[in-house]
Amino acid sequence: xxxxxxxxxxxxxxxxxxxxxxxxxxxxxxxxxxxxxxxxxxxxxxxxxxxxxxxxxxxxxxxxxxxxxxxxxxxxxxxxxxxxxxxxxxxxxxxxxxxxxxxxxxxxxxxxxxxxxxxxxxxxxxxxxxxxxxxxxxxxxxxxxxxxxxxxxxxxxxxxxxxxxxxxxxxxxxxxxxxxxxxxxxxxxxx
Length: 191
Description:
The chain is mostly helical and 191 residues long. It has a domain at 59-190: Tetracycline Repressor, domain 2. The protein has nine helices and no strands.
């Protein structure tokens, strides 16, 4: 009987997340995961569960880390508008560096048919929406944004724009195009 390997679950989830992020849920085999995590399959099943349970933990980890990063970046920004601009520029950078967004990839790959994953992504999207809406409202209150755009609608517009850039980059592989779209969006909200 094979001995179960003891391991650090947080590190194992991080390593598994990186595999899922790169290969997607369907493209990742159990062997890919156990090799990356440096554990055997019985250790995986006995401590975390099956591939789906591991994926759920990974996508939750990803969204939790992303939420903390957004808060930290906004706290370090010079102003609410600057935080929104940084958010847009960060999205552009992530896209053109080929890292993509695990949440966006997951939404297109499996969220439509997986309620558990859909709930995690909805929580993440709701957080991002509320986060950006709050920054936009603060920017208007401070006079950084002077247009009559409703912060709610502007936030929806902003989110739909940057999520569409992922598709554009996958199809065209054109970083200049993504940079131009990012700059155009910044110009539109800053007018």
